[in-house]
Fold this protein.
Amino acid sequence: MRLHSWEDDPGDLRAVLSPEERARADSFVFPRHRRQYVISHAFVRQVLSWYVPVRPRDLRFGTGPHGKPRLDRPAGAPGLEFNLSHCAELALVGIAREAIGVDVEAVRHGHDATGVAHYFHPAERRVLDGLPADRRSGAFHRGWTRKEAVVKAIGAGLTIPLDAFEVELDTDAPTVPRARGPAFPTGRSWHLTHLEPLPGYVGAVAVPFRPATIAAALVTGPVLPPTRAPGAGIPAVQDGWASPYESPTGR
Ligand SMILES: CC(C)(COP(=O)(O)OP(=O)(O)OC[C@H]1O[C@@H](n2cnc3c(N)ncnc32)[C@H](O)[C@@H]1OP(=O)(O)O)[C@@H](O)C(=O)NCCC(=O)NCCS
């Protein structure tokens, strides 16, 4: 499993997008949303082309029944799953050979979680209520990103009620969500990993295997480095555009 995240403005990347992606970008009312969409989708294409022998602009995508994007497997390429999350200036892409869901959020300190937390399972709300005020916001963001990562890994998104399963809120250790209602599909067991891709951001990744390790790179320069051949594997770390914050290997 590998994660790539990115934070910067590389300029105009529309040329690498499909006509459908450009049309969706144009449909956003606010320029910052348009920009975020263009950057993060160009980034998805760039990251995927590190793994399959296809140029970013030539990659093709389909969607699952609830809109989860998937890569149309190019001839001869290994099957790969990916998932994207974006928040403010950060885009995070997770890549795995099996289903994967990622979520990242900017932590809002002092954020009163009580309104949104009513979507949580009652046991989770009790945990939140029992925490000292200074730990509540962190616990809420951990819970929220973990739940989103799980429903995104499954591909059903918010069609699965967030109170149909329970996640740990007050630890950064790897955890396993527990089914708490019939709406949570029981076919697979999921494993959650906590992420802090940048100061001020918290995230989670969910996969249906115990990740021994995660390889992750925070990309901070041009999204489309000009020198990589498609399918050549992830780039070596180069000053100015990639710096791993954790670099063990994994599946
Ligand atoms: C997927 C979902 C959880 C997004 O969460 P979010 O925190 O707002 O946004 P994130 O930045 O983390 O993720 C957005 C990305 O997730 C991906 N995504 C979209 N649908 C997805 C799904 N069903 N499963 C997994 N990933 C999905 C896309 O790449 C999307 O990026 P894009 O909007 O730029 O194309 C939410 O929009 C959702 O539940 N969608 C599913 C569709 C749905 O339930 N529709 C209701 C029909 S009644």
In short: Residues 37, 40, 66-69, 83-86, 101, 103, 148, 151-152, 155, 157-159 surround coenzyme A (CB under 6 Å). Confidence is low (pLDDT under 50) at residues 7-11, 220-228, 236-251. The first strand starts at residue 2 and ends at 6.
